[in-house]
Structures are given as C-alpha cells and as structure tokens.
Amino acid sequence: xxxxxxxxxKIRLHREGTHTLVWGGAALLLLNxxxxxxxxxxxxxxxxxxxxxxxxxxxxxFFRCPxxxxxxDTEKVVVAPADGRIVVIEEVEENEYFHDKRIMVSIFMSLVxxxxxxxxxxxxxxxxxxxxxxxxxxxxxxxxxxxxRSTVVIETPEGVDIMARQIAGAMARRIVTYAHEGEECYIDxxxxxxxxxxxxxxxxxxxxxxxxxxxxxxxxxxxxxARLA
Length: 229
What we know:
Elements: E1 11-13, H1 18-39, H2 43-62, E2 64-66, E3 77-79, E4 84-94, E5 100-109, E6 116-118, E7 123-131, H3 143-146, E8 149-155, E9 161-168, E10 175-177, E11 184-185, E12 190-194, E13 198-204, E14 209-210, E15 217-218, E16 224-227
C-alpha cells in the first residue's frame, strides 16, 4: 500500500494538546507579566521566567505527534501501540472480556514519551468500553483492573481477538479513544491519546510469539510487539 512506501519523519503537535498549550502559555505569560510589573524585574523573576519556559517546553514535548508508517508486512503482526518501556510480560487471567488465560504485555509511558496511541493490528473493532476507576501509579499491577481505563477489542482478518487497554496513571485524568465498534482498523491509525503519564496493556492469545523483552524501549507503530500463531 502507498501509505507504507515511505516513512515520514515529520513531527507535529497532537490536537489533544491545543487547549492545554494555548491556555497554559497564556497563563504563564500573564503570570510573568504581573510579576514583572509588580516587582520591576530582578534575578529571581528572570529565573522564574526561565523555569516557566522550561515547563512549557516539557508540555510541548509531551504533546508531540510524530507521523509514523509501519514498514513491512502487517499479516499476523502486533505492533507496539505506544512509546515507552516494557514493564510486564506474563500469563494472566483476563476476566473482563475473554474470561481465560492470555499473555499480557504492558508498556509504561513516562512524561517524556509521546502519548499518542496506535492501533496494534489490522482488523475490525469488536468492542470499545470505558471504565471509571482509581488513579494508582500506572506501573502497579492493580492499575490494569482498578484504574480508569478504556478497552478496545480487535478481531484480526484471521479471526484472532486481541485486546488493547488504555490505562490512566496517577497524573493522567483523561483517556481519549478514537476507535468505534464495527469499524475496520489498520496499523498506522491512531487508537487514542492519554494525558500525562499512563500505560497500555495488550492481551494476546497463548502461543503468541513475543518479540520484546522486559525493560525494552518501544516506539509506537514501529516496534514489533509480537507475531500471532
């Protein structure tokens, strides 16, 4: 397909960050203007202004949205849905949808990672479900079932169901999911976005070949997470 002939290196900002960046930038400018008018400058105020610029640039970095096209055959391939680090690879009992044992692979996203999430497999969306919950630290095991989360189940062209679960963290307060039940979906498409620190779990059938290891860094829509049997 033409969309996979060439990998684009262009970086843009995600639309989910528009209001945060505009209103956050305006608030920081107003705060610094008030302080300079009130106190007339000084080293402390210049240091504070520099700190505000650094904080704003960190937030800008958080809302990066790189355009990535997966290179290679997508048949039976599961790509990483997020940038981050592998924190869990284990066999678990999945009781929300499958009600059987699955291999869970979890990617933790820190504040410095891109927080856009990608569709991990080609297929059809079978289920999209949002669950309210707690805001435990995202790397804790209980976060997978107790935190606020959004579950997406995709059936591949071969009839294999896989689940991707977006999980809020201690700082995350908004999960956005773009997937809709009944729609066809493809690798390269965005699945959603999670604001400010979070995690994505992928549940795979037993017998799946896992292609990553604990602690490994992942690049969303580029790193091959697994190959389905």
